[in-house]
Amino acid sequence: MLRRRLARAVRRADRQPLRRALSLGLPTLWGAGAITYKLACPLAQQNGLGARIVTSAVFFAVGTGLIVHVRQTLLRELRQIRKVAGAAQSVLLRPLPPRIGGLDIAVAQLSADRGAVVGGDLYEVVATEYGVRAVIGDVRGHGLAAIATVAAVLGSFREAAYDEPDLARVLTRLDRALARHLRERARAEHPAVGAEPDNPVAEEFVTVLLLEIGCDGEMSVLNCGHPWPYLLRGDSGPVGGPARVKPLSCGEPLPPLGPFPLPADLAPVRHGRLLPGEALVLHTDGVEDARDTRGRFFSLSAALTESLRTHPLSPQTVLSTVFSRLLRHTGGTPADDVALLVLRNARRPVQPHGERVGQRAHPVV
Q1: What's the pLDDT score for residue 183?
Q2: Are 109 and 93 in contact (CB under 8 A)?
Q3: pLDDT for residue 301
Q4: pTM to 2 decimals?
Q5: Which of 302, 154, 279 is nearest to 217 (CA)?
């Protein structure tokens, strides 16, 4: 259904040249009428004040009509472009359901390009037989130029996440899909180079964070140059104690996809369990890199702490608090694309044999 909507929007955009040609007919008639009046009308040949006033009124009316017509044409084309971009966003960044595999989901994305609805950020969450798998990434650049790269990475993830039992294999599939996309783009942009360019698009790269949450809440992460997520625990968390915001990080991330090959001994990093009631906040670097008019960076940790202090822990309230503070911090105009994905474990607590509810099998580093 979404693909049909996109195809219809693209077909309508393809008919724009014909409509543009037809729209030139009315301005041409207006211009011809004004010239005919000036050359053929006896009144236009007179030098009296009344004749000059009439002639000026005629040309003023023609000029005003042309300006209004051009403005309406540009607005119509802008609305059509936004429809195509909206259809593209519906296909690439599909709306996520409020719950997937026992996890409450909330996501929001904001493009830095004014009037654009698709940026360079990507995200997806799917429930598989291996657990809930999520991806969040950031393509170099933003706006409509990043759509093709976003489509290549997301398309590969949506297939590999179901097919590959190992999270490392999913990342390998994403890396191959990106390399293939860059080679094809290089051949299209520079056909004289040859069938296989040595360095397809050297400056192109994608940061990616892959996350897997098993049925028992066990978390596995692969990070390629992306910001680490935050772990949130509300006041009524399973282990008690006050609300807490903690970065979920472990060592240096891998290089971004694109410039360098993946290491041969690729293995996911285990980060303990996401207990019932806890939440993870995945984000792109456009959040913490946002600056105010005095050059100060946005504090995502402070915004998350405020959300836990003023509201019960829920994905929607976390998004609302962070985005309201972010827009206030940047004056409503962030300099980079922004994406935020919140996953809250809404499963019922399970008490394994010999383990208390709320006890972690692996400490969070």
Answers
A1: 86
A2: yes
A3: 94
A4: 0.72
A5: 279
